[in-house]
Specification:
alpha/beta, six-stranded mixed beta sheet, globular
């Protein structure tokens, strides 16, 4: 598959493509028995930067066995505690496969799009923060246009855009976990979550 996968969150069925992409790309990780950690980065103090914590909030119930969710509205992971949280994760799990999730600014034509790349995420770049690269895979949602005053842009981002992107990413991850669990255990007893309809 291509190194960069992209999808438009305005298409309500796009979560299915995220599910299938993750399922195909992460099969080798699951077969190795490695833990998969979804690291949701951001803060609930900024509308544009709350994408990660919103996704973590929607998915925190999924943490089980070899799938783990870090970074929620209640316990966000941001620039001030990122290094500490990464240290804790690496101490707790043996060679975890980390998927970093974060909001991103971009071109006006990309607002609402979701990008998945098989490479580390560099959090805080838009705000000139010196943070370590995170993860073996990254999922980013373009929440607003990049410009000269990125901090103000993030503060004035529409919550509707962030919610739309978070719904699609959350549903994609949820259905990836469901599909992986079904394939690996052939069990029919799974927890079901209801997402708000578009």
């Amino acid at each position: 598959m291509a190194e960069v996968f992209s999808i438009d969150s305005k298409i309500s069925s796009s979560y299915i493509k995220i599910r299938d992409y993750l399922f195909e790309e992460l099969q080798h990780v699951l077969k190795q028995g490695r833990c998969i950690v979804f690291l949701c980065i951001g803060t609930d103090r900024s509308t544009g930067d709350c994408l990660g914590p919103l996704i973590g909030y929607k998915l925190e119930f999924l943490s089980r066995d070899n799938i783990h969710i870090f970074g929620t509205l209640q316990n966000p992971i941001h620039s001030k505690n990122l290094v500490e949280k990464l240290d804790q994760i690496n101490l707790k799990f043996n060679n975890p496969y980390i998927i970093a999730i974060d909001a991103c600014l971009g071109g006006i034509n990309n607002i609402g799009k979701i990008f998945i790349e098989k490479k580390s995420l560099l959090p805080g770049i838009a705000l000139n923060k010196n943070l370590p690269a995170v993860g073996q895979m990254s999922i980013t949602g373009i929440v607003n246009i990049s410009g000269n005053f990125d901090f103000l842009v993030l503060q004035n981002t529409r919550l509707n855009t962030v919610m739309m992107i978070s719904d699609i990413i959350s549903k994609g991850i949820y259905h990836f976990v469901l599909k992986s669990t079904t394939n690996n255990s052939h069990s029919k007893n799974h927890q079901v979550i209801s997402f708000p309809s578009k």
